Sequence to fold (169 residues):
Amino acid sequence: MSHYSVPGGEPAISASATPASSAATDYYLPAGLPMPLAEPAGLYGRYWEGTRKEKLIIQRNPATGVYQFPPQWITHDTQSFDLEWVEVEPRGVLYSWTRIWHPIHPALNEAVPYIVAVVELPHAGHVRMLGNLLGDRLQTVTIGTPVKAVFEHHDDAPAPFTLVHWRAL
Fold:
């Protein structure tokens, strides 16, 4: 069974969240998943530092104003090494999505289904980011729905990190 609609179709997303959390956490997905490589000194360092402060930080070419994500060592448009990191509004538009029914990790056996969303940031050069779409796991999903970032802090991890999820406005 699939629940989706296109603009002008059925109402979009339910406001209720149904986390598959363990008793000790309020995480959207259960404990036991591998941690992301959130190294402060690596290529994604500034991005991960921003998420810890509940800010969305992405790269931009200062010469042309072109945004890019995911991070790269050079600019996409001019192949320059001159990049800057800028804060962008943590809002976007649902560009695409998929509902995951089959667990890809043993920790997800009881967490399916869940929705992975591709979110476009129109105000930041239309870059796209991935994340979980929060709310009812069987919700009707509408392409073009405005969404906002939700920052999920994992302070109990050996190396604390923060994930970016998305919720419909």
User: Anything to note?
Assistant: The chain has one domain: 4-168. The radius of gyration is 17 Å.
